[in-house]
């Protein structure tokens, strides 16, 4: 009887230890499946930023357009006018107030922010992050070897159209930025010109594509 109880106990402990691993893998496949069906997404967003104590620091608004693979257009309109555009290979970040454009290699952005995961199914990039499913929210966290500016990305989907509903970013400074999406359109045709960017004349250009 004791032997049976011991076997049952070991089996239970084994399942408890192994369950998070399976849960992470299942959550990752579930999230990748949802994103694979999201060939494009457009919407407006409202942003709220809180500090570590929960105090509101800033609010903002803007628009977002996503398309597979690795195409992003993120226009921040308030409080500052900034534009983040990725054509798939090259990413541009334009700060109109500073009159500066930063040029980046899109694939390397995976190492600093999991946000780009929303537009790629590439297993090598996903392997750099852990994914958990907490009720209806996906929690994405970088693995130890990833030097990320983001500690956790929390993502939830709209139950009506399967588009993005809310995105929360916990960064390494302790600030929490929450983006709530509205007026969204899912899987509608998006012109490639939405993801093109021409560097304005007279701005400072910081080309980081050749740097590690």
UniProtKB/TrEMBL annotation:
Single Gene Ontology BP annotation: lipoprotein transport
Chain's role: Participates in the translocation of lipoproteins from the inner membrane to the outer membrane. Only forms a complex with a lipoprotein if the residue after the N-terminal Cys is not an aspartate (The Asp acts as a targeting signal to indicate that the lipoprotein should stay in the inner membrane).
Highest taxon of source: Bacteria
One Pfam family matching this protein: LolA
GO cellular component, one term: outer membrane-bounded periplasmic space
UniProt xrefs under SUPFAM superfamilies: Prokaryotic lipoproteins and lipoprotein localization factors
Protein localization: Periplasm
Signal peptide segment: 1-23
Protein name, UniProt field: Outer-membrane lipoprotein carrier protein
Family: Belongs to the LolA family.
Chief location category: periplasm
Species: Pseudoalteromonas piscicida
InterPro entries: LolA/LolB/LppX, OM_lipoprot_carrier_LolA-like, OM_lipoprot_carrier_LolA_Pbac
Record keywords: Chaperone, Lipoprotein, Periplasm, Protein transport, Signal, Transport
Subunit and partners: Monomer.
HAMAP family per UniProt: LolA (MF_00240)
């Amino acid at each position: 009887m004791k032997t049976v109880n011991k076997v049952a106990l070991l089996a239970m402990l084994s399942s408890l230890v192994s369950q998070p691993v399976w849960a992470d893998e299942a959550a990752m496949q579930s999230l990748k499946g949802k994103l694979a069906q999201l060939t494009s997404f457009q919407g407006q967003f409202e942003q709220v930023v809180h500090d570590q104590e929960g105090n509101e620091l800033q609010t903002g608004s803007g628009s977002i357009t996503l398309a597979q693979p690795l195409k992003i257009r993120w226009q921040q309109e308030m409080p500052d006018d900034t534009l983040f555009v990725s054509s798939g290979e090259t990413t541009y970040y334009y700060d109109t107030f500073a009159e500066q454009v930063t040029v980046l290699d899109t694939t390397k952005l995976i190492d600093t922010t999991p946000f780009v995961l929303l537009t790629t199914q590439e297993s090598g990039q996903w392997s750099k992050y852990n994914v958990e499913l907490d009720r209806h929210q996906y929690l994405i966290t970088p693995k130890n070897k990833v030097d990320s500016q983001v500690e956790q990305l929390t993502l939830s989907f709209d139950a009506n159209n399967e588009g993005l509903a809310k995105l929360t970013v916990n960064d390494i400074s302790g600030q929490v930025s929450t983006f709530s999406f509205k007026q969204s359109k899912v899987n509608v045709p998006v012109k490639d010109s939405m993801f093109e960017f021409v560097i304005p004349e007279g701005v400072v250009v910081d080309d980081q594509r050749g740097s590690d």
